[in-house]
Amino acid sequence: MTQEIEIEYKNLLTKEEYERLLHSLPFPEEGKKQINHYFETEDFALKRFGCALRIREKDGKFQLTLKEPHPEGLLETHDWLTDQEAKSWLEGNIIPKEHTEKQLLKKNMQLEKLQYCGNLTTLRREIAYHDVLLVLDYSTYLEMEDYEFELEATSKESGIRIFQQVLEQHAIEKKNTPNKIERFFHSIGK
After folding, report:
1. Scanning 32, 36, 139, 159, which has its CA 20 to 30 A from the CA of 122?
2. d(CA 166, CA 149)
3. Contact by Cβ (8 Å): 103, 77
4. Which domains are delineated in the chain?
5. Whether pTM exceeds 0.70
6. What is the pLDDT, as a whole number, of residue 189?
7. Collapsing DSSP states into helix, strand and coil, what is residue 46?
8. Residues near 106 by Cβ (< 8 Å), separated by ≥ 6?
């Protein structure tokens, strides 16, 4: 599938809250490493459209994803990249990919204006829980680190209900939580 609607809820955590969830819920002992490589134009055209573009490097594979606003959450458009294509993107040689290029062109975004801006590395743990996916992330970027709880759901109703239950059951205060790319760009002052 090249497109999907992502319905997710996020909450930044303190290290203590992260440890509390890690040890109270059946998360795996070992996390999986993933690296998000972020792209933007010099004038932040993607941000103006409420969009984000990344290459996620995970298990030796590279997936290009464009995230766009959608009434139900976020519309994600994906393309797989070969190792060489990913290397080219990271070196500033943007190689058009069918599905993401189509979406970008709908916004009159020119691929040649995209620039590689840096990366964020995450150690991720996931578990299935009452028909949703619970995620614990520890991320590092630009000499920063943060802890995050995410819940991915198939509907807004079940997602928000279970999200609030988990926070309440573990005495975690709901916090305003920008997404990872926003936190990344904020940390470099852009």
Report:
1. 159
2. 10
3. yes
4. 3-187 (2.40.320.10)
5. yes
6. 75
7. helix
8. none
Structure tokens belonging to residue 139: 């991320």
Specify whether the CB–CB gap between 145 and 139 falls below 8 A.
yes
The string of pLDDT tens digits covering residues 166-183 is: 999 999 999 999 999 999
The whole-angstrom distance between residue 95's C-alpha and the CA centroid of its chain comes to 22
The full length of the chain comes to 190
Task: From residue 15, give the alpha-carbon distance in Å to each of 22, 31, 73, 87, 133.
Answer: 10, 16, 28, 34, 21
Q: How does the average pLDDT of the chain come out, rounded?
A: 95
**Tokens at residue 33, please?**
């490493």
Provide φ and ψ at 175, rounded to 5°: -120, 150
Burial 65-80 (b: 16+ CB within 10 A, else e): bbbbeeeebbbbbbbe
pLDDT at 1 over 70: no
Residue corresponding to tokens 């620039």 = 115
Structure tokens at 47: 């941000």
